[in-house]
Amino acid sequence: MRTLLLALHADLTGKVPAKIEPNRTDDARIGGDEDEQPLNEMMQAIASSRNRNTDGVLARVMKALGKLRNDPDSFGECEECGDELPYGRLKAVPYVEFCVDCQGKKDKPKGGPTRRKLTDYT
Ligand SMILES: [Zn+2]
């Protein structure tokens, strides 16, 4: 997962993430095979996210990288409810912050008349 994020970061910034992970190039030479496929999927994710908000994506990638480094246990958990994120979702969007449920709530804010029990999650 870290490899995905680093590659994503590199692509977004246009730089090799040497400052973050100096050993990255060695990894790519020695054991890169396993990363090939996820990387392809990720490039598609990048391509689609580019159309939206590159800065926002980069910020989330940076955040995810920081989390991965400082608090790896919490990486891959929804920031809202703490549920583990499905691996498929993480693989497609390595910097994802919320599970499908919480993301859905965020995508349609101000819930309208049908108010959900958001307070139950605090
Ligand atoms: Zn959640």
From TrEMBL:
Keywords: Metal-binding, Zinc, Zinc-finger. Residues 18-37 are annotated as: Disordered. Residues 21-32 have a biased composition (Basic and acidic residues). A zinc finger (dksA C4-type) spans 78-102. Residues 74-107 form the Zinc finger DksA/TraR C4-type domain. PROSITE patterns: ZF_DKSA_2. InterPro entries: Znf_C4-type_bac (IPR020460), Znf_DskA_TraR (IPR000962). This is TraR/DksA C4-type zinc finger protein.
